[in-house]
């Protein structure tokens, strides 16, 4: 069951885990908007430890100006659910 | 095992020449390192020679011509275009093309919007459908700059977009692989589907060219 829906405002987690993760550094701690649900997929962070965990993957739209302080474009990044926390109204 | 891996591009950290600045290792050095890594994985029982070969061959069965065929159909058939944008895997299947093991997401360029594809973490690309990605796609320079300054990167590819065009960069961090559907060029009304497909370039399918 997906926790977020299209339109949800979320923040990419800031933490820097010890092992593998697929959260690009440039979005960590930044807020974005869910623009798509990509289905349930294996969480790579767990898979590299030999554990099978599946989670919803979301397409999250970030504004370049929020990420770098400049730029008029958007960047859409795919993030697993546990990479995200709710951030309604914080963007 | 195929004998010579010098031409394979399955190394993710290849140094390539687009824009320079990658430094990196000489290709021959990379090839030797890849062979050594493969030998160690096989020796450790992590993978067999046959499995490795299957993975390598998968990439070579794809071709940008497949992407071009999908785009040409989308230009010619608005119903197919809608289905493609809604479910890329099913639409590719309609043309007998397999996009398996990932979610195929087609993103369409219009007069007001331009889409650009990158994989900042490594070099994800719909290889089984489109074949190996170009060397520059795997370069550190492209991966770092595409998300940060796409307009400047596009200009270096010769793509000058009006300021009013909204750019969206898709970073392939997970299980989706993206395909750009370029805007249909003016003056292409009388062309057959094959004629349309001939207009579509690999860079057009990545978003680093307009067609």
Task: Describe what you observe in this structure.
The complex is a heterodimer of chains A (91) and B (211). Chain A has 91 residues and is mainly beta. Chain A is 10% helix and 40% strand. Chain A is built from two helices and five strands, in the order ββαβαββ. A five-stranded antiparallel beta sheet of chain A has the order 4-3-2-1-5. Chain A is globular, with a radius of gyration of 13 Å. Chain B has a domain at 62-206: Nitrile hydratase alpha /Thiocyanate hydrolase gamma (Nitrile Hydratase, Chain A, Alpha-Beta Complex), CATH 3.90.330.10. Chain B is 42% helix and 11% strand. Chain B has a two-stranded parallel ribbon. Chain B has a two-stranded parallel ribbon with strand order 2-3. In chain B, helix 3 (64-76) packs across helix 4, helix 4 (78-86) packs across helix 5 (88-94) and helix 7 crosses helix 8 (150-156). Chain B is globular, with a radius of gyration of 18 Å. Classes of the chains: A mainly beta (91), B alpha/beta (211). At the A-B interface, strand 2, strand 3, helix 2 and strand 4 of A face strand 3 of B.
The CATH topology of chain A: SH3 type barrels
Mean pLDDT of chain B: 87
Strand order within the widest beta sheet of chain A = 4-3-2-1-5
Q: Approximately how much beta-strand content do the residues of chain B carry?
A: 5-15%
Helix content of chain A: under 10%
> DSSP strand (E) fraction of chain A?
35-45%
Whole-number count of domains of chain A = 1
Main beta-sheet annotation of chain A: 5 strands, antiparallel
CATH fold node name of one domain in chain B: Nitrile Hydratase, Chain A
Pick out the low-confidence regions of chain B: 1-23
CATH domain class of one domain in chain B: Alpha Beta
Shape of chain B: globular
Level of helix content of chain B? 40-55%
């Amino acid at each position: 069951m997906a926790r977020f829906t299209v339109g949800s405002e979320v923040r990419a987690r800031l933490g820097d885990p010890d092992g593998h993760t697929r959260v690009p550094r440039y979005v960590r701690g930044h807020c974005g908007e869910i623009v798509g649900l990509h289905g349930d997929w294996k969480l790579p962070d767990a898979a590299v430890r030999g554990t099978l965990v599946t989670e919803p993957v979301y397409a999250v739209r970030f504004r370049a100006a929020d990420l770098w302080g400049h730029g008029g474009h958007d960047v859409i990044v795919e993030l697993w659910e546990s990479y995200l926390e709710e951030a309604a109204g914080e963007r | 095992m195929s004998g010579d891996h010098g031409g394979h591009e399955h190394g993710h950290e290849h140094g390539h020449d687009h824009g320079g600045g990658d430094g990196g290792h000489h290709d021959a050095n990379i090839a030797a390192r890849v062979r050594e890594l493969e030998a160690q994985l096989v020796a450790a029982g992590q993978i067999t020679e046959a499995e490795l070969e299957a993975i390598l061959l998968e990439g070579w069965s794809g071709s940008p011509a497949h992407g071009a065929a999908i785009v040409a159909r989308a230009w010619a058939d608005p119903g197919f275009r809608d289905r493609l944008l809604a479910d890329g895997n099913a639409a590719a299947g309609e043309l007998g093309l397999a996009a398996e093991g990932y979610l195929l997401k087609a993103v369409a360029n219009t007069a007001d919007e331009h889409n650009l594809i990158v994989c900042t973490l490594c070099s994800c690309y719909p290889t089984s459908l489109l074949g190996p990605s170009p060397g520059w796609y795997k370069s550190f320079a492209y991966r770092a700059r595409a998300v940060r300054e796409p307009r400047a990167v596009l200009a270096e590819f010769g793509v000058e977009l009006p300021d009013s065009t909204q750019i969206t960069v898709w970073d392939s961090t997970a299980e989706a692989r993206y395909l750009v559907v370029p805007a249909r060029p003016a003056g292409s009304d009388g062309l057959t589907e094959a004629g349309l497909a001939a207009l579509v370039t690999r860079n057009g399918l990545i978003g680093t060219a307009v067609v």
